[in-house]
Amino acid sequence: MLNLNPTSLIFGENGHVTPISTGTIADVNYTPHDLTVRVTALPSHGAVLKEDRPMIRRHYPGFLSQADCVQVIDKCLSAPESLKYDIFNAISENKYRWRSTEHTKSVLGWRPTGRSDDFPLPKTP
């Protein structure tokens, strides 16, 4: 099982996995004459959470469910070889999300099912 919460990862040649900048997962494959890079921009502020639900108010716009996260990574890794370079935003179907995911949906066929709106807002002290 891949733990996606604490750090971001880069997937490279021969399945090599390396941490990179926060909020990004990149699929990098290369041969001496060919390079493929697909970058998935994940929400910052730890919005892919082990509880699989937003825990504080700032998680709601950028929430990405675990299922949606796994699905977008799978779609990126299994994209056709003709897709050499692209960047894909990944945020669940939250009412107030702050990134458009239309490009990710149209190019990869990603269909997010999670929604932060399904969880009640935490009470403020």
Describe the secondary structure blueprint for this structure.
Layout: E1 8-11, E2 17-20, E3 24-31, E4 34-41, H1 59-62, H2 66-77, E5 85-89, H3 102-108
Parallel strand pairs: 1-3, 4-5
Antiparallel strand pairs: 1-2, 3-4
Describe this entry's structure for a reader.
The protein has one domain (8-117). The chain is built from 3 helices and 5 strands, in the order E-E-E-E-H-H-E-H. The protein has helices spanning 59-62, 66-77, 102-108; strands at 8-11, 17-20, 24-31, 34-41, 85-89. The chain has a 5-stranded mixed sheet, covered by helices on one side. The radius of gyration is 15 Å and the shape is elongated.
Relevant terms:
five-stranded mixed beta sheet; disordered N terminus; 5 strands
Number of domains: 1
Number of strand elements? 5
Q: What share of residues are in beta strands?
A: 15-25%
Strand order of the largest sheet: 2-1-3-4-5
**Shape, per Cα inertia axes:** elongated
| Mean pLDDT metric | 75
Structural class: alpha/beta
| Count of alpha and pi helical runs | 3
Report the order of strands and helices: EEEEHHEH
Radius of gyration: 15 Å
Q: Largest sheet, if any?
A: 5 strands, mixed
Determine the fraction of residues in helical runs and give it as a percent range: 10-25%
Low-pLDDT runs of 5+ residues are 1-22
What gap, in angstroms, lies between the N and C termini? 37 Å
